[in-house]
Amino acid sequence: MAALFTGKVLTGNRERDEVETERELGRALENKVLLLYFGSGQCPRCREFSPILKDFFVRLTDEFYVERASQLVLVYVSRDETEEQQSAFLRSMPKRWLAVPFGDAFKRELELRFAVSEVPAVVVLKPNGEVIVGNAVEEIRRMGTACFRNWQEAAELVDRNFLLAEDFDEWSRRSITDPIRRLKYKLDKKREEKDKGRKEEGEES
């Protein structure tokens, strides 16, 4: 996914800091579903949809609702008329949102690439940049957070929630027959202990 943003800059919400895409953003996007939200704080349809999207995002990523944040990242692509309008809109949205800087020509590149002609639009992408849903606005309205499960499966994300980070590489190197070998080892060991016990009983008698 970082390839989509190579040489580009994103900003963190409510911060002036730029996200250096080759490093921080690469890690932020790894193994995650990416939402590109094309919208505007002044558009009536966006004003109606944005609170729905905010609630959708928060319910999947905020620790108040979930034990672990879902593998989800959102980038706001603004059609606001001024930088102040974009900043005002983002202040009302979750802090974890990223944004294309106001006035960046990359915004137009994204609109053309994903054929976005009107807002609001939510393009859902796999970690490799492939499109899962061209515009998920109606799906989010209709299904709420339930649609994330479908995207997660389509994106073939690796669920690392049940693996410690340091164990993951070791786990991935194991053969599929490893559990069978461990079971066989346990059975062989039990058999050896039984045989040993019988020998000792025989010697005593």
From TrEMBL:
Listed under GO cellular component are:
mitochondrion
Top-rank taxon, per record = Eukaryota
- UniProt-listed Pfam families: Thioredoxin_8
Q: What name appears for this protein in its UniProt entry? A: Nucleoredoxin-like 1
> Single Gene Ontology BP term?
photoreceptor cell maintenance
Query: What sequence ranges are listed for the domain Thioredoxin?
Result: 1-142
